Amino acid sequence: MLPHSHEFFMQYALREAHNAYEKDEVPVGAVIVINNKIIARAHNQVELLKDPTAHAEILAITSACNAIGAKYLPGATLYVTVEPCLMCCGAAYWSKIGGIVYGTGDDKNGYKHITQDQWPFHPKTTLTNGVLEHECAQLMKDFFRAKRR
């Protein structure tokens, strides 16, 4: 089977973000892929669970670890619609995830805002950004614009 593109898997993460939006959660979605197959998917559930750690990335990492029966994900790629926050970077670090692909940056809460030039991920983790950036950013803009009305 031919490998799917980053855009292909980011579309699934965007679907998760839309699910969050519909539930009045900050619209961040994530999927985790191993061997060209989605093994976990999640969206923010902070409001539903009343848990500030219930970010899409953390929920997806937990689901992926349960799916494969292991605490490390070196062969996995996390697709997430928004740049991970520092907490989610920590979860990615400890899971030893192989790759992270995100859509849009987060100048206020993203890891780059805090760490600047420091690498917050596992040393072997690869990073790709800007995948479906416009679509990911627009969903966030729409959500917060509606909140300000």
From TrEMBL:
Keyword Mitochondrion: no
Gene3D superfamilies membership: Cytidine Deaminase, domain 2 (3.40.140.10)
Binding site for Zn(2+): H55, C85, C88
Catalytic activity: adenosine(34) in tRNA + H2O + H(+) = inosine(34) in tRNA + NH4(+)
Active site: E57
Cofactor note: Binds 1 zinc ion per subunit.
Residues annotated as signal peptide: none
Cofactor(s) annotated in UniProt: Zn(2+)
Residues annotated as domain CMP/dCMP-type deaminase: 4-118
Record Pfam families: dCMP_cyt_deam_1
Keyword Repressor (UniProt): no
Job description of the protein: Catalyzes the deamination of adenosine to inosine at the wobble position 34 of tRNA(Arg2).
HAMAP family (UniProt xref): tRNA_aden_deaminase (MF_00972)
Assembly and oligomerization: Homodimer.
Protein name (record): tRNA-specific adenosine deaminase
Organism: Ilyomonas limi
Biological classification of the source: Bacteria, Pseudomonadati, Bacteroidota, Chitinophagia, Chitinophagales
Name of the gene this protein is made from: tadA
